[in-house]
Amino acid sequence: MATIDQILRQAANPFDPATFKPGNFWQENPAVNPTVDTIHQEALGAIATLLGQVNDDHKTRTLLLLGDSGSGKSHLLGRLKQTLNAKAFFVYIGPWADSTYIWRHILRQTVDSLIQVPEGQQESQLLLWLKSLSIFQKKTLMDRLLGDRKAFIRQLRETYKTSIYNANEFFGVLFDLLNPELQLTACDWLRGDDLDEEDLRLIRVKNSIDSEDAAQKILENFGRIATETQPIVLCFDNLDGIPRTPEGFIDLQALFNVNSTIHNEKLQGFLLLISVITNTWIENSKRIQPADKARIDTTVSLRPINLTQAEGLLQVRLAHLYAKASPPPPPIYPFSKEGIEQSFPGGKTKPRNVLELGRRLFIEYKAGNQTISDPYAIFKLVWLKELQKSEQKIARIRQLASPELVQMLREALVALGAEDVRSRFLPSPSYFIYSFSFQIAGKGDRTGVVWTEEPNSTSFYHIMKACQKALEVELCQNLVFIRAEKLPRNSTKGYQLFAEIFKRGTHTFLLPSLETVHQLLTFYNLLNSARSKDLVIAGKTPTPEEYFALVRESQILQECELLQALLNPAKVVKKKRIISTKNAKQAALPEIDFAEVNEFLFNFVKINAFLGLQTLIQNTLEQFPHIDRADVEKQIHELVEQKKIQFIDPNAPPEAQLVCLVPQAK
Question: Both 401 and 545 in a single domain?
Answer without folding.
Answer: yes
